[in-house]
Amino acid sequence: MEEKAYIKIRLLKGKVQSIPFYICRSFPVNKKKIVFCCIEGTTGYTCNPKYIAEELIRRKEDVELVWLVNDVSKQFPKEINVVKNTLLNRAYHLSTAGVWIDNSRKQLEVRKRKGQTYIQTWHAKLGFKPTCLDRGKSFSRIAYLVSKHDSDMIDYVLSNSKWYEDTLPTGMIYNGPTLRFGSPRCDILVNHVHEMHEKVRKAYHLPMDAKLIMYAPTFRGGSQGTTRSITTENETPDCGMLLQALQDRFGETWYMLLRLHPQLVARQIESGMRDERLIDVSKKDDMYEILAGCDAFVTDYSSAAFDAAVMRIPVFLYCSDYDEYKKERGTLLWDLNELPFGAARDNEELQKIVCGFDEKEYKRSLDRLFRETEMVEDGKACERTVEYLLTLNK
C-alpha cells in the first residue's frame, strides 16, 4: 500500500474512532479517577505505571484506579479495576478520568478534555536508540503524526535527568513541562535488592549463593510504519562462553536469565542457546522484579542498561549487528566507547571484556555518567510522583 493512501486510511480511521470519545463527554470528569495503560495495552502490570499504582495502593489513597489491558487474565492487585482495552472502554474511561498515566503513545482516536491531566512516564529515559525526529529518514510520516498527536495532549513528561530532558524536543516532539522525579520502575533497584535477591532465587529454585546475569536485548520491529513486524535476526551471545567468563572473573556458579520478546523466545533457544543454567523469564510481566535480584546484566541497545547500572552491577553490551542496526535505526545517541559498559561485537570480545572487568574503574565511570547527565535515581521516584498526583485531585 502506498504511504499516502495508508496515511489517509489511518487518519480517517482515527476520526471515526474518536466519535465515542466525544459522546463520552456527556459524562463528568472524576478527578479521583486515574487510568493506567502500558504499551497500548499489550503488556500487563509493569513498568513505571505499575510502581506509581503500587505507591497509591500502599498509601491507601482515596482514588479510583483503572488499568486498560488487552489480556484481562493477567494478574493485578484487587484495588485496581482491570478493564478490557477496547475502543468503547478506552473512550469511556479516558474521557471520565482526572489523570492518565501511560508509558507509550496514545493512538490517533484519543481525545483529551479540558480539566484532565496526562502524565507520560515513557518506557525509557537514558537510552541508546534514536526516536522520532532523531531517526531521520527512517521516521515515517505516520509515525510523526501519531507521535505529534500524543505529545500535543501531554501535560507532563516524567524525567530522570537533564540529558533526557534535552532529548525531548526531537526524541519525543515535546517541548512542554517535565517532572524530574526519577523512574518509578527503578525504585525497586535501589530499595529492594536484598529482598528480590532471595525472592528470584526461590522462584526459579536456585541456590541462594547462585549468581545471576540477565540477558535482555532490545525489541526490534516496526512501530507506526506501514508494516509492523518483529525482527528475529539479532544474534545472541554464546551462553556457555559468557557464563564461563563470568565464573572465571567473579567466581561462584552463574545462571543466565533470558528476557526476550515472547515471539523470539522459541527461535532463540532452538538456534543454540541451550544450557542447564539458562532460564527463560520472558513471560514475566515485570522485568524489574527480576532484574533487582541479578548480579550482572547484558543487552545490546536497550535503555535497561542504564537502569541496571543504578544497581552498580556490571553491565555489558553485545552488539554483533551494530552496523546493520545503525543503518536501520539511525545513529545511536551515545558513542558506545565513551560509556562505562564494555561493548563487544562477537563472543570472543565479550569474553575478554568480562574477564578484564575493572570494578573500581567501572564505578568511577558510572559516577561520572550520572553526574554529567544530572541523573536522579535515588529510590524516591514513586514517592515524588504520587505526592504530585495528589495535588492534582485538589
Description:
The radius of gyration is 21 Å and the shape is globular. With 394 residues, the protein is of the alpha/beta class. The chain folds into two domains: 9-185 and 379-392, CDP-glycerol glycerophosphotransferase, N-terminal domain (Rossmann fold, 3-Layer(aba) Sandwich); 190-373, Rossmann fold, CATH 3.40.50.12580. Mean pLDDT is 91; it is low at 222-233 and 265-272. It is built from 16 helices and 13 strands. It has helices at residues 3-17, 19-23, 47-59, 87-95, 141-153, 162-171, 187-191, 193-203, 239-250, 262-270, 287-291, 304-309, 322-329, 347-355, 359-373, 381-392, and strands at residues 30-37, 64-69, 80-84, 97-102, 117-120, 156-159, 178-180, 211-215, 254-258, 278-280, 296-299, 315-318, 342-344. Helix 3 crosses helix 16 (381-392) and helix 9 packs parallel to helix 14 (347-355). Helix 13 (322-329) links the parallel strand 12 and strand 13. A seven-stranded parallel sheet has the order 3-2-1-4-5-6-7, sandwiched between helices. Strands 10-9-8-11-12-13 form a six-stranded parallel sheet.
Helices and strands, in N-to-C order?
Answer: HHEHEEHEEHEHEHHEHEHEHEHEHEHHH
Residue-averaged pLDDT: 91
Biggest beta sheet attributes:
7 strands, parallel
Work out the helix count. 16
Basic shape? globular
**Number of beta strands:** 13
Tell me the radius of gyration: 21 Å
Cross-sheet strand order for the largest sheet: 3-2-1-4-5-6-7
How many angstroms does the end-to-end distance come to?
49 Å
CATH class of the largest domain, anyone?
Alpha Beta
Low-confidence stretches: 222-233, 265-272
Looking at the overall shape, the CATH architecture of the largest domain is 3-Layer(aba) Sandwich
CATH topology group of the largest domain: Rossmann fold
CATH superfamily of the largest domain: CDP-glycerol glycerophosphotransferase, N-terminal domain
What structural category arises from helix and sheet content? alpha/beta
The share of residues in extended strands comes to: 15-25%
User: How many distinct folded domains?
Assistant: 2
- Helix percent reads 25-40%
